[in-house]
Design a protein that fits this description.
Arc Repressor Mutant, subunit A, three-stranded antiparallel beta sheet, 3 strands, 8% strand, globular
């Protein structure tokens, strides 16, 4: 049988988890609204943003960067390629790998939608002071790295 202290700890943990999920969904919905209006999924936007800031990357590296599986990345890149936003080229060093880069059309699109997206995030986060944002970032990193 669990002690009163364990039950209280569980109630606090569950309440904190619910607040975390609600806050994440609220912020995500708000800041990603215009991504959908641009005709992109969040995964497509993530790939375009990674390529925009980091330059051409191998598919497997993109998957690690935006936390998506290899199969999912292939499908998302296929769709971006159909829209002529990215191009895939086989690596000259190892033909098993594809390097993905932005097309001019892709660079123009992400160049237009990223700055307002970044400002929406800044504005949404401004409810917290810079110190609170840093503290929250540290706490979330700690939470994300913990494994039972």
């Amino acid at each position: 049988m669990r002690s009163l202290a364990e039950l209280k700890q569980e109630v606090v943990a569950l309440g904190t988890f619910v607040k975390l999920i609600r806050a994440a969904e609220s912020v995500s919905t708000d800041v990603h609204k215009e991504i959908g209006e641009a005709g992109l999924s969040i995964s497509q936007f993530g790939i375009l943003e990674a390529l925009y800031h980091l330059g051409p990357m191998y598919q497997k590296d993109i998957g690690r960067k935006i936390l998506k599986s290899a199969g999912n990345i292939t499908m998302v890149i296929d769709n971006l390629e159909k829209q002529k936003l990215v191009v895939r080229r086989r690596s000259s060093k190892d033909r098993r790998f594809y390097q993905v880069s932005l097309t001019d059309k892709g660079e123009t699109l992400i160049g237009a939608i990223f700055p307002p997206h970044s400002r929406r995030i800044k504005n949404r986060m401004s409810v917290l002071t810079i110190d609170e944002q840093k503290m929250l970032g540290g706490l979330l990193k700690k939470l994300g790295q913990h494994r039972d």
